[in-house]
Specification:
- The protein has twelve helices and 47 strands.
- It has about 1000 residues and is mainly β.
- Keywords: Cell outer membrane, Membrane, Receptor, Signal, TonB box, Transmembrane, Transmembrane beta strand, Transport.
- Pfam families: Plug, TonB_dep_Rec_b-barrel.
- Its main location: membrane.
Length: about 1000
Amino acid sequence: MHPSRRPTLIHLAALAACAGLALGARAQTAAPGQPASDPPQEVGSNVLSPVVVTGSRINARGFTQPTPTTRIDAVDMEKAAKPNLFNALAELPALQGSTGRTTSTNSTSSGIQGLSSLSLRGLTPIRTLTLIDGQRVIGANVTGVTDVSQFPQLLIKQVDVVTGGASASYGSDAVGGVVNFVTDKRFTGFKANVEAGETNYHDDRNHTLQAAWGGGFLDGRAHLTASVEYSREGGVPSPRFGGAGANGRTWFKNPAFQVRPIGQTNDGKPQYIPIENAQQFQYAKYGLITNGPLQGTAFGKDGVPFKFVYGSNGVPTGTGAVTGCITPFCVGGDLSGTVGGGTTLGMNMTRQVAYTRGSLELTPDHEVFFTFNYGRVDSRFTPNPGAFKNDNLTIQCDNPFVPASIQAACATNGITSFKFGTSNANFPKDIEVNPVRTQARLVLGANGRFDAFGKDWTYDAYATHGQNTIDINVANMSLNSRYNAAIDAVRLADGRIVCRNPVAAASGCVPLNVIGDVPADPAAMSYIEPANGPHQHSRQRQSVASFSVNGEPFSLWAGPVAMAFGAEARREQYYVTGDPYGNGVSADSPNTPEYPADPLLNTAIGNNWYAGNYHNARGSYHVKEGFLEFNVPLFKGTPLGEANLNVAGRHTSYSTSGGVDSWKLGSTWKTGVDGLRLRAVTSRDVRAPNLSELYAAPLVVNNTVNYQGSTVTIQQRTIGNTNLRPETARNSTFGVVLTQPSWAPGFSASVDYFDIKVKGVISTLTPQQEVDLCVAGNQEICAAMDLTSATKYVTVQAFNLASMRNKGFDLEGVYRFDLGGAGLPGKLTLRALATRTISFLIDSGVVGTIPTEAAGVNVANVPNAGSTPRWKGQFSQSWDTDKFNLTLAQRWISDGVYSNEYIECQSNCAVSTAIHPTIANNQMKGAFYWDLGGSYKYSKNLTLYFKIDNLTNVDPVAAPQTGTGYGINPFLYDVLGRQYRMGARLLF
C-alpha cells in the first residue's frame, strides 16, 4: 500500500464503523472533551482529594468546565503500547508540530534534537504548557519547553489535553492549551512492564523495563510510591551516501525542487519543479571539478579521474553551469555522492527515569508530601554523512595529490587551480551528535481543608526546584580552517608532502588527500577532527512557589458559587557555555588543553567548526502572579435545564516586561434536550519571551545590506532583546456535546469550533528585513541599527512583529455497546477523533510579504508550516472482555500542498513573483495508517500483549526541499515503517 493513494473503500468502511467522523476519542463515562464530573476520592486518604479539572482551578464537585478537554487514561496508554508515552500523545489530532526522536535529525545546532516536546494546534511547543499534577516542570532547553521523555510514565494514571487557552488558570505559555500528566498518588502494590520490539527492517530495536511500587504506613496515614524506568530505542543507522535508504527501505528517491531564476519565468513555464533523483552537480562522492575547462572531471578509486555522468543529459559549460540542469540540481545521473538520504531516520535514544512520592497526614484534614524525579535522556544520531563541500574549494594544480593527467591538463589549458566539490565520503566516520539531558526535580507541598466563615475550604501549596543539565557533544566534526589548510598540499624538494601554508605547517598541519576514493590519513583526520569536538554545556534552573484555595463562599438562586484564588512566584535562569573553537575565546571560555590555541582559528567570534558552533549565554527573570476564578450557577432545575458561568482573571508581573493580564469567560448549558450540552469560552492568553529570546548568545560577524540604493558593509550583531513584550492571544471556542442520550445509550459526541489569534508574535528577522522595516518607518527597528556612522551595524534580535491566526474545529466521540446480542462476550467500543484546520494564517510583519496560509501545507519548508494538515484523524475499534482485548486503529492525514502561495501550472504560466511563485505540481499526498494491538490476561497477575504499528508498512510521502534536505516530513508522516512490539505486564 502506498500513501499517495486516496482512501480506499476499506478505509471509508473504517470511518463509517466509527460513526462517520462525528464520533471522537475518549473512553470514559464522561462526555468527550470533558473530564468525569465526579471522580472518586483516592482510596486510603481522609484528606479531601482534589478533583482533577485541568482546564480550570475550580475543583468543586459537579463542576463542568467550558474549555474542551480530552482525557487519556491508563487503559488507553496500555493499548497504545509505546516505548515512550510521548509517541502515543503526539498522534492525537489536536497535537500538531510536536518534536521527537524522528524530527530535527538533520540538525547539529538547533538545541531541540532528541527533545520530546508537545505542540497543540501547530503553534509550536513554546505555546503549549506541559504540567505534572498541575505543576510546572523545568524546561529541557533554552526555550523553556519540557521533555516528556524525562517524565515518570508508569505511574501516570491519566493525561488531560486542554485544547483551549488556559493562561488565566495556569499562567504563561498556555496559548495553544495545556497537557497535564496526572500521577497515581495512592498506588498500592507492585506493577511492572517489560516490552521489546523492532521495525520491519530489523532495526530500531527497542526494549523497555518499568517497575513501580506503592504502600501505606502508620495505619494508612503515610503513603510512599516509587518507580524506575529504563528504555532504549536503537534507532535507524545512516545508510550514508547515494540515497539508497536504510536497511532495505526503497522509498527514498532524493526529492527536491528545481527552482528557476525568477527573471526567466516570462516564458510561460513554472518556476518550481518538483523532481525525484535530484543530483547536486556541484560535488561528487569523491570529488568533482566544478568550473573551468576541466569541469565534469570526477575522481574514483585511488584518485583515477573519470567523466562525471550528469543527470538530465547535462553537459558542463565550463562556467559552473550545466546545460539541461537548474542550479544546483540535475535529474538522475551519478547519484552516488548524494547525502540527503544519509540522515538518521530515528535517533538512538535511552531513557532512565526514577520517581518517588511520599505523603503524611498530619491530621485527617492536612497532608504534607514530597516528590522527587530524576530523568536522563541520551540521544545519538548522524545529521549527514561526510561533510560535503558544495563547489567552495580551490585546488592548486601543483598539489601532489592531483593525478598527473590532471596536472598535465591544467598546463595544457593554462590554469593553475580549479574549483572542487566533494561529499568527503572518504572520511572514515560520520558526524555524530549526542545530546544528553539530565533532570532533577524536587517538590515539597501540603494540601488539606479548613473551615472559615462557616464554609469548608480546601488548599493546595507547593514549592519546587528543578534543574536540567544539557550536554551536547559532537564527534567527528571538522574545523574549516584546518581542513582548508590540510587539503592544500605541496611537495618539497626532498619529496615530502606538507601543508602549503607555513603557519599551518608550523602548528601541526598534516596534509589530507580528498581527491578520489583513497584512505584518509589517520594523522590528517586527527588534525582536522580533534578528539574534543563541538560541545555545549547548559544548565537550566526553575524555582516555583504556589498556593491556591478552593471553596464555595456563598450560594445564589441556582446553587453555591465556587471560587478559587491563589498566587505564584517563579524564577527561571540558565547559562550556556560553548567550547572555545565554537564560541571564541573570552573570559568565560579560555583556551584549554583540550582546545589548544591555533593561529588558523578565529579566536574572537569562534564559528570554526563545519557545524555545531555553540556560543556562551546566560540570563534570568522572575515572575509574580495572582489569579481569581469563579463558577457561578445561572439556573438549575428549570425547563431550560441548567447553566453556569465560569470567569477567571490573572495578573502577572515579569521582571523583564512588566505586568500583563489574562482572563477567561465561559459558560456551559445543559439544555432541556436529552443529553445535549452547549459550551463556549473566550480567553486572553499570554506567552512571555523565553530565556533564549531575551538573552540570546551574542555574536558579531560581517555582512552586507542594501540601504538607499547602495550596498553597505555592516557588523551583524546578534543578541537577545530584553525589551520584548509578551505575546497576547485571543482564544475562542464554541462546542456542542451530546452525552449518552436515552435514545442512544453508550453514545457520546462533541463538536468544537476554535479560533486562536496571536499578536505580537516573537520572531527574528534578517539584517536586510530589519533595514527595510526601518526605512518603512518602524522606529523600534531603527533603534537596533546605525547605518550612518563610521562603524555601521545592524542588531539582529527578536521583535514582537509577527501574528498568527488558527481556526478550525474538533470532532470527538465514542460509542460503546455489549456484544451479548450477537452471542459474543464483552463490549465493542468505536472511537474517533479528528481535527479540521480551516485556516492557519502567519504574518511575518516583514515589508513586502503577505500572510502565508499554513493549513494543508504538508511539507515543512517554511516556519510553522508542515505540521497542520487540513484533516488529522485517529480512529479505533476495540473489543474488550475480561480475558482479552483486540484493537484495530487508524491514523489519517489528508492530502495537502507544498505551499498555499504557489500557483500551479504546467504551461502558459504567469510570470512568477516572490509572493506567488509558480509550480508545476503543488500536490502532496496524505497518508492512512493501520495499527493492530491486543492483550491476553494469562492470570490475575500477568497480562501479555502485542502491538503492530503501521500494519501495511506505508512509506512516507516525498517532501521536496530546495537544498540538501532529507526529503521527508517526520512531523506528519511515519518514517520508520512497520513496527512490532510485544510485552508483559505484572500487577500484584
